[in-house]
Write a structure and sequence with these properties.
98 residues, mainly alpha, elongated
Length: 98
């Protein structure tokens, strides 16, 4: 729950007054898809990564894909209205009992 609060607080502060574009999502998604295809071809050719190579592959695929998905969630929420990010922030900031 703490991650949701932090995420929507960041989204509200950064994107409340900005117009969001689909371009970053497409760019990061294309980047991740490109490396998925590269690594899939390498696996089919018989290549097995070391631990370091696997970590690099995870960063080249996972980070851009994660950014793309999170940006899409913000854009989808913002499309609901002018104050949608504020309403989402307020809904996750509900009072928690100790």
């Amino acid at each position: 729950m703490e991650f949701q609060r932090t995420f929507w607080k960041y989204a509200h502060r950064r994107y409340q007054t900005r117009k969001l574009s689909v371009l970053p999502e497409l760019a990061m998604g294309t980047w991740a898809l490109f490396f998925v295809l590269i690594y899939a071809a390498a696996f089919m050719a018989g290549w097995y990564p070391t631990l370091v190579e696997a970590a690099v592959a995870l960063c080249l695929i996972g980070l851009p894909m994660g950014y793309s998905i999170l940006h899409w969630r913000i854009r989808k929420e913002k499309a609901k209205g002018a104050d949608a990010l504020y309403r989402k922030l307020a809904s996750v900031n509900s009072f928690r009992r100790p």
